[in-house]
Amino acid sequence: MIAAGLLLLAVGGVDLLRRLITRRRPLAFAVAGAVLVAMSAGADAIVAGILALAVAAIWTWVVPESGSARTGLWPVGLLGVTVAACVVVAPARSRPGLLGSVWEAYGPRADVSIDVLLLVAGCLLFLLESGNAVVRIALRAEMGERVLPATGDAPATLKGGRLIGPLERILVFALTLAGAYTLLAAVLAAKGIVRFPEISRDGEGGDRAEYFLIGSLVSWVTALAAAFTVWWGVQGG
User: Fold this and answer.
1) What is the pLDDT of residues 92-116, one digit of tens each?
2) What does the pLDDT read at residue 148?
3) Where do the TM regions start and end (predicted)?
4) Alpha carbon distance 186, 63 (integer Å)
5) Residue 75: how many CB atoms within 10 A of its CB?
6) How far apart are CA 114 and CA 132, in angstroms?
7) What is the domain range of residue 88?
8) Phi and psi at residue 107, to the nearest 5°
9) In whole angstroms, what is the distance from residue 223 CA to residue 166 CA?
10) Which has the closest alpha carbon to 14: 126, 116, 121, 118?
């Protein structure tokens, strides 16, 4: 489980840094990498931390900041398989290192291990900006040339999507883990109601409706997959 958490932290962190920082990126990446390695060492998972950095470096190459991935949806699928394998191969541990011992002694929830905490943190960080990359890749794969090559955005882009998407994914993630399925259904239905005026002006092309459906479904599936990963890791531990 610790390996999956560190992997998602590394990939989500590098995507967020690419989004927020335009200057001195190598320095920012180096600092973030050092923090991740120190964290993994404190959690007695230094090998997993180094491997997570390697995967994040590959991710930055195959998934550019704009446009589609260099190999389509394959990077997303391989990342999902890798995270699942990490949960299976490295479940929750009884001895989570110095960082885990400090968490057990002073953390607000002694029944939540440091492995679970890092996995949840990794999922949340991944859902912020990497989730947008996953949605963009899916849109490019399905809509083709109707998505602008330079930016990855569709001509029918809906307003506020880049901000609404992460918030929506985090809500779906949290409500799913909390078991609040009725509230989850209400949130998903509310999005369709709010977007209906924009979609209804779509005309004969149907680009807005297709963009909304593909983007929303991929976003929801990403959040649900993250919630399932946490649930699976906790049950397996």
Assistant:
1) 776 778 888 887 777 776 677 888 8
2) 45
3) 27-60, 72-92, 112-128, 170-190, 211-234
4) 33
5) 20
6) 27
7) 2-236
8) -70, 155
9) 9
10) 126
Domains identified in the chain, total number:
1
- The confidence band for 149, taking pLDDT boundaries of 50, 70 and 90, is very low
Question: Nearest-CA neighbor of 56 among 114, 8, 128, 23?
Answer: 8
pTM above 0.70, yes or no: yes
Higher pLDDT, 69 or 171: 171
Angle at CA 74, nearest 5°, toward 88 and 219?
Answer: 80
| Residue 114 contacts residue 96 (beta carbons within 8 Å) | yes
Structure tokens at 6: 């560190």
In which band, very low, low, confident or very high, does the pLDDT at 205 lie, cut at 50, 70 and 90? low
pLDDT at 179: 92
Residue written as tokens 């399925």?
A: 181
Distance CA 17, CA 125 (A): 11
Pair of tokens at residue 184: 């989850």
Q: Tokens in use for 137?
A: 């890749």
pLDDT at 236 over 80: no
Q: Which amino acid is at 117?
A: L
Amino acid identity of 63? V
Q: 127 and 58 in contact (C-beta within 8 Å)?
A: no
Alpha helices per DSSP H over 126-180: 131-143, 161-178
Name the least confident of 87-96, 119-128, 170-179, 182-191: 87-96
